[in-house]
Amino acid sequence: MMILRGIPASPGVAIGRTFLFDTRRIIVPTKKIREDAIPKEIARFEKALIKTRAEIIGIQKKITKEMGSNHAEIFNAHLLVLEDRMLIEEVIGRMKKDRKCVEHIFAKVLDKYINVFSKMNDEYLKERISDVDDVGKRILKNLLGAKEKSLSELKQRVIVVAYDISPSDTATMHKKNVMGFVTDIGGRTSHTAIMAKSLEIPAVVGLEKATTSIKAGDMLIIDGNEGIAIVNPDKATLKKYQTRQQQFVNFEKILVTLKDKPAETLDGHRIEISANIELPEEIDSLIAHGAEGVGLYRTEYFYMNRRGLPSENEQFEAYKKVVTRLSGRPVIVRTLDLGGDKFLSQLEVPREMNPFLGWRAIRFCLARPDIFKVQLRAILRASAFGDIKLMFPMISGVGELKQAIVVLNEAKKELRLRKVKFNEKIGVGAMIEIPSAAITCDLLAKEVDFFSIGTNDLIQYSLAIDRVNEKIAYLYKPTHPAVLRLIKNIIDAGHKEKIWVGMCGEMAGEPGFGLILLGLGLDEFSMSSSAVPEIKYIIRNVKFEDAKAVAEKALSLPTSEEVEDFVNRRLDELVPKLKKIRKSSKG
Ligand code: PEP
Ligand code: MG
Questions:
Q1: What is the pTM of this model?
Q2: Which of 249, 386, 430, 482 lies in the 20 to 30 Å Cα band around 235?
Q3: How many Cα atoms occupy the beta-carbon half-sphere of 208 within 13 Å?
Q4: Ligand 1: which atom is nearest the Cα of residue 460?
């Protein structure tokens, strides 16, 4: 038995056999062949190409059905690689010349292609390396007769072990066969972790040595609440976690009964609990968990994994679908926030030394009003069909916010000229996720209808902690006094200008911090759907007066450790029943 400690990324317990998701290790044989064997090798190659094509189309169909067509777009690029005549003819030509088996020749040609692509100045073509690499490995595996090729094709229920999993790989996972996953790298608020939460797949990231110390087929327990992975557990440990898993499921069942109850404290203070979504498909889960609306609709997933940019009409239809499905519940659509750990392959955005500090989000949109306005018009048009607000990400100060509003007004004007209906009074908000905005939020509050605090970025920028780097993850503390003071400043400034203040960073969904945020007067908490019931339970079982006292005391403590100890103790005292359920769910 071996215990590995990492970062809890998505709650729940998973127990099962492991599947090593490592596309890097393929051993290719180098066999000499006779001249008369060449036609047979060509036939093998063709068969592998046909099989690969059928596989890709199969995955594409499955993903379209399960996750929507946006997520299936990436495979169009893969199909194009597969049809590349130059590549195919080069393989056949070299095989005839070198008289080596097709696997060997194909691997060589593939390497050459990747090499050529990586030396190109064209960023778009550089980004195609991963498509060529992906398809190439798939063809090689088919030539070698290897099994289990991608996360969407898993035939058995497994726990995936990988060095890293990209947000798009996460999107291709299906709960049915992926019981959970662990990775060597990554942080709590990386987008892979966020996707895992929205898919409700238990996950632990940043284990550092997962791929080197876990073997394929090992028995593995992962505890996504505690951030641990136990390799080949003994009988007693296995039993303990089986019980814990069952209790976690029961706990969830209890909490979901709160679904239709309001988020109101014992002394009548009402707040709003919303959910964050990446995909329209998540709305059913949001409603099932009792969220009152969407506090953050991350639209960049709509732009990812596809060729070309989505048109105004396509976006309009998607946003309209979201509001319609929400049947009257409000939704806050965040404008494009590419960059950081979310890259869009179809846009020519150069790689940067510090992508989180780079040309991203609103900075990119203001530099490309052509792209920005298409999205703004689509959101505006959808506002005629339901309760939509829009918000801008990564606002650093009033100047930038005003520039964004100018573009919004232009988009409105264009729609008026086209005589297209939209909500003229659409609510406009700013995400407060850069320290400069948090410090000047008294000025920003005069310009918008609401604030939404993006703690994932606010913490990384104010504490100088890269949110996806597991080595420094221990310093990523939402309860750092600097962060708490910034949050208080934002809420107070918002209230002074009579605008509401929400939070859509992961901090809003952490039960331990609920009391502080409630006590500081946060009006709206937006989180992964699965976190909604527990936060609602806490809100419904405490007094606002008590939460205020907790917040006041927490703000006077000098270290994050002291704040955490204090709030956890107060949570146990004020909501003892939760402690009991949580404790039993921990076994
Ligand atoms: C945040 O930064 O807190 C946030 C909600 O946005 P994202 O995680 O998409 O950067
Ligand atoms: Mg952010």
A1: 0.72
A2: 249
A3: 9
A4: 2
Atom 6, ligand 1: which residue's CA is nearest?
Answer: 454
DSSP letter, residue 224: T
- Looking at residue 347, its amino acid is L
Confidence band (pLDDT; 50, 70, 90) for 190? confident
* Consecutive H or E run containing 413: helix 398-417
CATH topology for the 35-144 domain: Enzyme I; Chain A, domain 2 (1.10.274)
What is the rounded CA–CA span in Å between residue 313 and residue 332? Answer: 19
Query: Which backbone phi and psi does 52 adopt, to 5 degrees?
Result: -65, -40
Residues 442 and 496: their CA atoms lie apart, in Å, by: 8
Report how far ligand 2's centroid is from the alpha carbon of 464 (Å): 14
Q: State in words which class domain 2-23+150-237 has.
A: alpha beta
CA of 475 to the centre of ligand 2 (A): 18
The question of whether 191 is a catalytic residue gets the answer: yes
Of 332, 335, 456, the residue with max ligand 1 atoms within 8 A of its CB, to mutate for a pocket test, comes to 456
Asked if the model's pLDDT at residue 587 lies above 50, the reply is no
Q: What confidence score (pLDDT) does residue 354 get?
A: 85
Choosing from 299, 304, 337 the residue with most ligand 1 atoms within 8 A of its CB, the one to mutate for a pocket test is 337
Looking at this protein, which amino acid is placed at residue 387? D
- Provide the 3-class DSSP secondary structure of residue 447: coil
Cα–Cα dist 450/431, whole Å: 9
Does the pLDDT of residue 393 top 50, yes or no? yes
Question: Tell me: the pLDDT tens digits for 364-375?
Answer: 999 999 999 999
CA of 559 to the centre of ligand 2 (A): 25
For the CA of 506, the nearest ligand: 1
Distance, in Å, from the CA atom of 171 to the CA atom of 182, rounded to the nearest integer, reads 15
Q: Whose CA is nearest to atom 4 of ligand 1?
A: 454
Q: Give the ligand with the smallest distance to the CA of 194.
A: 1
Cα(152) to ligand 1 centroid in Å equals 27
Note the ligand closest to the C-alpha atom of 458: 1
Q: Is 104 an annotated catalytic residue? A: no
Q: Among residues 578, 571, 576, 581, which one has the least CA distance to residue 550?
A: 571
Q: How far is the CA of 1 from the centre of ligand 1 (A)?
A: 37
**Res. 97: pLDDT tops 80:** yes
Give the model's confidence band at 153: pLDDT under 50 very low, under 70 low, under 90 confident, else very high. Answer: confident
Domain locations in the chain?
2-23+150-237, 35-144, 270-586
Q: Per-residue pLDDT for 362 more than 60?
A: yes
Q: Pick the catalytic residue from 71, 78, 191, 480.
A: 191
Which has the closest alpha carbon to 499: 539, 571, 450? 450
For residue 157, report the phi and psi dihedrals to the nearest 5 degrees. -80, 120
Tokens standing for residue 342 = 């979310």
Fold of the 270-586 domain: TIM Barrel (3.20.20)
Q: What is the pLDDT of residue 282?
A: 83
Q: Of all atoms in ligand 1, which is nearest to the CA of residue 340?
A: 10
Q: Which two tokens stand for residue 495?
A: 């209230």
Kindly indicate the confidence band of residue 496, based on its pLDDT and cuts at 50, 70 and 90.
very high
Residue 545, helix vs strand vs coil: helix
Mean pLDDT confidence for 221-244:
92
When pLDDT is cut at 50, 70 and 90, the band that residue 148 belongs to is very low
